[in-house]
Fold each of these.
Amino acid sequence: MAENKSHELAWAECLKIIRDNINPQSYRTWFEPIKPIRLSSKTLTLQVPSQFFYEWLEEHYIQLLQKTLKKVIGMSAKLEYSVVVDAHFNGNEKYLVNLPTNGPTASAQNELGMPINLDTPIKNPFIIPGLKRMNIDSQLNAKYTFDNFVEGECNKLARNAGLAIAQKPGGTSFNPLMIFGGCGLGKTHLAHAIGNLTKQTHPQKVVVYVSAEKFITQFIDSAKAGNNHQFINFYQYLDVLIVDDVQFFAKKERTQEIFFQIFNHLHQNGKQIILTCDRAPKDLNNMDERLLSRFKWGLSADINNADFDTRVAILENKMYQDGITLHKDIVEYLAHNINTNIRELEGAMISLLAQASLTRKHIDLNLAKQTVKNFVKNSTREISIDYIQKLVCDYYNIPVEAVKSKTRKREIVQARQIAMYFTKDLTKASLKNIGMMFGGRDHSTVIHACQTVNDLIETDKKFRHDVEELEKRIKINTF
Ligand code: ADP
Ligand code: MG
C-alpha cells in the first residue's frame, strides 16, 4: 500500500494522526514547519528548519513519529531528516544537509553544516561615523539571568529557544523569537536573560534591549528633531535587538513602518530579533499585515501560567538569592494561593517578610494567611461591567466609549456583543442593567447579542478562539 503513495500524501496522513495526539500549539510549532521531501523504499525524508528543531523532535516526539509512520507507511517504515542550515549570516541562501539515519530513533552522527562565521563584518553602508561598537549601552538589566529564571513546563520552549539563540544569535531558525504570554509570567525577565547571556558568550556583539513604548518615543523625538535617519541607522547597526511588549505598536502606523524597515534590514543580515508580546501574534489587531507575517517567521513560543511545583521552585530560588529561609509550609501556602502571576507571588513573599520585620512577628502560617488575604484582596478586582468592557476593548484595540456609543460599525458591534455576553455570563447584572451600561440599550438587544455570540462560537473558529482567549484573560486577572 505504501510504495505508491506520494511523500506529500503520506505526510498529510501522518499529520492528521499527529494533530489528534498533541496540543495545537506544539503542533503548530513543531509539525507545521516540516516539509516532506521524498518517500522511497519506505523511507520518508522530512525537511526541518534547524539542528535544534531536529533534536527537539527526536527528544520529544520520536515515539509519536514512530507509531504514526508505521501506521501510515508500514511496519518497516524509516525516517530520515534533512536539516536546513543557514550557510551565511548575511544572505538568505540555505543548503541542505542530509542526516542518514537508520530508523526513527537514530540520531545525527555527523557534525552539521559549514562553520558559521560569527565575525562577519557589518556591511551597513550607513554606519554612524564615530560610533564605536563597544560604546552602545545595551540597556540590559543584569539582575535577570537564565540562572534565576526557573524552568517549568510553562516556559520550557521559550527558555530553551532563548538558550539556543544566546549561543548562536541570528544563527538559528528562531528569528525572530516571539515570546508571548500574560502579564507577570516572565517575558521581560527571559528577554533580558537572553540578552545578558548573548553578551557573555559573544562580547563583541552589539545587543540592545528596548521597550516598545520607548522605541515609539525615541522615534517620535527623532522625527521632531528631523533626524529619523539616525534613529534608523542606530537600530540597523545592532547584532541583537530585543523589543519588549510589541503590542504597543498597535495603531502606531508610522512606527510600524519604520520598525518594518529595521526588522527587514536586521533579518536579511542575519541579525537576531527577539520580541515579546502579551498575546499571540495572530491575536494582534491594528498591526500591519506585513509586519505580522514577519513576527511569525521564526518561532512563537508562549509562556503559560506556572504549575504548583514551578511556583514553589521560583520562590525557593528567590529565597536563595536573597538569603532568606522560610518554612516549607509557608512557601507551599503562598504558591498554592497565588497562582496566576509570578510578580504577585514574589510580591506576597516580600510583603510577608516586610510585615514580619516591621511588627517583629514570627513568620508562621497564620501571618502568611493574613498577608495572602490582604494581598489577594488588594490585587484582585471584582468582575465588573467596566472591567469586562475595558478588557474586551483593549483586546480589539478600540476605545471603551465605542461599545457604549450608537455606532453600527461591524468591529464595534462585535466587541459590544462579546462584552455583553461576558457580562451576562460572569456578573449578576440583569439584562436591563446590562443594556443600560452599554449606552442605554434595551434588554432584547442583550439577548440578541448573547444569541449571536453563541451562534458564532459554534460556527466560526477564529471567533471562538477570540472568545476563549478573552475568557482566559478576564478570569486570570480576577482569579
Ligand atoms: P512579564 O514581562 O511577562 O509581565 P516579568 O518578566 O516582568 O513578566 O516577570 C515578573 C516577575 O516574575 C519578575 O520579577 C521575574 O523575575 C519573575 N519571574 C517570572 N518567571 C520567572 C521564572 N520562571 N523564574 C524566576 N522568576 C520569574
Ligand atoms: Mg514585561
Amino acid sequence: MQPDHVRIFDTTLRDGEQSPGATMTSSEKLEVAKTLSRLGVDVIEAGFAAASPDDLRAVKTIAEAVGVTGVEGRPVPEPPTICSLARADKSDIDKAAEAITPATHGRIHTFIATSPIHREHKLRMTRDQVLEKITEMVSYAKSFTSDVEFSPEDAGRTEMDFLYEALQAAVEAGATTLNIPDTVGYTIPAEFGERIAMIRENVRGVENAVISVHCHNDLGLAVANSLSAVQNGARQVEVAVNGIGERAGNASLEEIVMALYVREDLYGIGTQIDTTQLTRASRLVSKVTGMMVQPNKAIVGANAFAHEAGIHQDGMLKHEETYEIMRPETVGAGKTQLVLGKHSGRHAFANRLGELGYPVSGDGLDKAFARFKKLADKKKYITDADLVALVSDELYQPTEYWKLEKIQVGCGTGMPTATVRLTGPEGQLRTEAEVGTGPVDAVYKAIQGIVDVPCTLLEYTVHSVTEGIDALGEVSVRVSPHDDQAQPDKINPQYEHSRARVFHGHGAHTDVIVASAKAYLAAINRILAIQEARRDNEAAGSAA
Ligand code: KIV
Ligand code: ZN
C-alpha cells in the first residue's frame, strides 16, 4: 500500500551534520529532533550509529525521548519513525539495531554503492558481489526490524539494468523502502523523474515498497529533482532543514514542503507537515549548526517576504496575492513588529515568545527574561528579531564550561588591549590581559590565556539583528582545535579526514566586542562538550 501523502524523511541530523562545522552536541541534536517531531516529519534519520559511540548514544537518546510518544504539539498521533544509517555490514547493522531499539517505530537504513565508478574504485567488487551483499545485509537488517530501507549509493550514475537488479534483490530480501540517491547531484529533473518512472515499471515487486529519493544539490537541482520524482511516483523525499548536508547540501525540507503545499493543484498530493513550524525549525538548525541562512533563501530567508520595489508595495497594499504566492504566517514568519519595551512584563514576554514558536518556561524563561530586561534598559524598542536572537542566544548554547564575567578593552591607534575575566568549570575566577592586533584579537588571546584550548579562528562574521545604532550585534565564529586534526569519516570510519573538525559559536549583545567574546567562548565550550561526551562514552564502553 502506498502512503496517501509524501513522506518527509529528515536527515538534518545525519547527512546535515556531515556539513563541515555543523557538529552538534547531544542536547542540540535532541532539541532538533523534538522540533522535527513538532513539524510532523514521518522519519527522523537521527544519525549513523556505527560512526562512533557518541553517534550511537545520540540516536538512542532520540529514540527514547522522541520515538516513543512523539512530543507535545506534534500534528499527527503516531511518533516519528527513528532511523539509523548503516553500511551493508553486519557490525554497522548491529549498532543501528541497538540504537533504534527504544523507538516505537524503528528503521534501519542500509546502503551500498552501485555505480561503476564506486564499484571499481571504492568497493573493488563485481556486480554479483554487490548483489549478494544486498541480499545478505537487507535480510540481516530485517531480522531486527520489519522496517528496512535500502539505498544503492550513487544511483544517479548507476546503469539502469543493474539498478533494477539491485533494487529487486533488496525488495526480495524484505526492504520496505527503496531509496534512490543522487549522491553527487549529477542528474537533471526530467532525467531523474524518468529514472523513477522506469524503476516503477521494471523492478519486480516494487509495489511492495515505498520509493524514496535523496538528492544532493551540487548543480542546485536537489529540490527540482525530488519534485520531479514525486510527479513520477516517489512517495518519500529525503530532506534537511535549510538544505544542509554534504558539499552543496541536500534538498531543503521547507522548499519541498511548500512546493507541495502551494502547488497541490499540480501534484495532487501533500505532506503532513505543520507548515507554521518551518521558520522556527530553520532558525533552530541555523543556530545549532552555525550555518547562516542566506537572506534571499526561499521560504525561510530574511527577505523571503520582503517587498522593496514601490510597484510591488503598491500591489501588495491593494491585494496581497499580487506579489505573494503564500502568506508569511503560513510558514510561521510573523511580521516584524515593534513589540516590547522596558515596561513589558514577564507574561507579555513569554506570550510573545510562544507566538514566535519558542514556548519557554521555568529556568529558561527566567534567564531569557533577565536578559530581556537588561536589553530593554539599553534599547527602547525590542523587535521580534531581537527577541529571537536573545532567546536563541540563551537557550541554544552548549554547556557553559567557561562563562564570561567581565571584559574591558582599550583600542584606537595605539596598542589594543583586553582584560577578560571568566568563571571556570569548578567555579574558579580567572583574569587575563593581552595585547592584540585589534580589540577582538586581544580578547581572543586573553580568553586563550585562561582556557588553553588552542584553536585556529577560521571565520568571524558580525551582523546587526535589526537596524538602528542600538541594534543587537550577532557574532558567529568557526574554529578548528589543534589537537583534533584527524577525525574518522562519518560514512567510512576506516578513513580519516585530512581536514580538522570545525566548531562554531555565536553570541549576541549590543556591544559587538562582548558578542565576539561570547561567540568565541561558545565555540570553545562546544569543543569541550564534545570532548567530554567522547570521554564519557569511552569510559562507558570500557566499563561494559
Ligand atoms: O548521498 C547519499 O548517497 C547518502 C546515502 C547514504 C543515502 O547519503
Ligand atoms: Zn547524502
